[in-house]
Amino acid sequence: MHTQNQSIIVSGGSRGLGLHLVSRLLEAGNKVATFARSHTAAMDDLSAKYGDAFYFTPLDAVDAPGVTAFVMEVSDRFGGLDSVVNNAAIGQDQLLMHTDVETIQRITNINIVGPTLLTRAAIKHMMLSGGGNICNISSICGSRGYAGLSVYAGSKGYLDAMMRALAREVGEAGIFINNVAPGFFESEMSSVLRPEQLDTIKRRTPSGSLSNDENIFKVVDLVISGTTNMQGQVVFVDGGITS
Ligand SMILES: NC(=O)c1ccc[n+]([C@@H]2O[C@H](COP(=O)([O-])OP(=O)(O)OC[C@H]3O[C@@H](n4cnc5c(N)ncnc54)[C@H](OP(=O)(O)O)[C@@H]3O)[C@@H](O)[C@H]2O)c1
């Protein structure tokens, strides 16, 4: 483990990759806070196991005052804020011509406005305290094309571009910002892929296998550890499919 004794926010920790990141960071002795729209049983299990080192509250990533208050609350409870992982997002499985306006607005709101609000609130705290680490969970879709994912891909491309600009804005304040871009991995979001689509992706992947939560965690752990001097980069965790 590279990340230890930190105060960390992971958005969307109620299930999937976010839950794995939260659990592994807690195991390593960090204090971890997360939010999602729904309260899952896993949140009660983590509260019972880790007590005050864990904090969950139901919150929508696009609720601007709520996100600002959450960051303040976490900083007060944990005595500061060292790292943020922007993980919460929603997917898409529809050709653009069949995608209604409400869906386009929902994806862009949650996947673009959401992480931007959390990052904005976090960097204010980090600037005052001398630095920190931000890691956005992007996707290979942000830089490679996949039919049926155009709006989602656009939202991940935004995260990559925003991250590079922000690295230049906040680098001097000791804030490191980088993105981790996974290939497809098993979760509720990717459950829309049919088995034959997953087989095709595996066949085209040089490593022969999809990434899993733990592969992605290992890279996130390094990125937010504050030990690398890595700044403004997108790191792909995809078995080489984008190589
Ligand atoms: N799965 C893949 O193949 C894949 C590939 C590349 C990148 N990614 C990226 O990896 C990250 C995690 O994906 P996943 O597959 O683990 O997704 P997931 O299983 O669908 O989990 C998404 C998490 O985000 C939360 N969330 C969604 N909308 C939210 C909102 N408006 N406010 C607060 N929380 C919200 C969800 O909780 P609620 O619904 O209860 O709010 C849930 O906790 C995402 O950024 C995704 O884009 C996934």
Secondary-structure blueprint:
Blueprint lengths: L6 E5 L4 H12 L3 E6 L4 H10 L3 E5 L5 H15 L4 E4 L14 H29 L2 E6 L12 H21 L4 E8 L12 H10 L8 H11 L10 E4 L6
Parallel strand pairs: 1-2, 1-4, 2-3, 4-5, 5-6, 6-7
Helix pairs in contact: 1-7, 3-4, 4-5
Bound molecules: NADP nicotinamide-adenine-dinucleotide phosphate.
Description:
The protein has helices spanning 16-27, 41-50, 64-78, 101-129, 150-170, 195-204, 213-223; strands at 7-11, 31-36, 54-58, 83-86, 132-137, 175-182, 234-237. It contains seven helices and seven strands, in the order E-H-E-H-E-H-E-H-E-H-E-H-H-E. It has one domain (7-237): Rossmann fold, CATH 3.40.50.720. With 243 residues, it is an alpha/beta fold. A seven-stranded parallel sheet has the order 3-2-1-4-5-6-7, sandwiched between helices. Strand 5 (132-137), helix 5 and strand 6 (175-182) form a beta-alpha-beta unit. NADP nicotinamide-adenine-dinucleotide phosphate is lined by residues 12, 14-18, 35-38, 60-62, 87-90, 110, 114, 137, 139, 182, 184-185, 187-190.
Total domains: 1
**Any idea of the CATH topology?**
Rossmann fold
Mean of pLDDT: 96
CATH secondary-structure class:
Alpha Beta
Q: What is the CATH homologous superfamily assignment?
A: NAD(P)-binding Rossmann-like Domain
- How many DSSP helices? 7
**What are the low-pLDDT stretches, counting only 5+ consecutive residues below 50?**
none
Q: How far is it from the N-terminal to the C-terminal residue, by CA?
A: 27 Å
Helix fraction, binned, reads: 40-55%
Small-molecule binders: NADP nicotinamide-adenine-dinucleotide phosphate
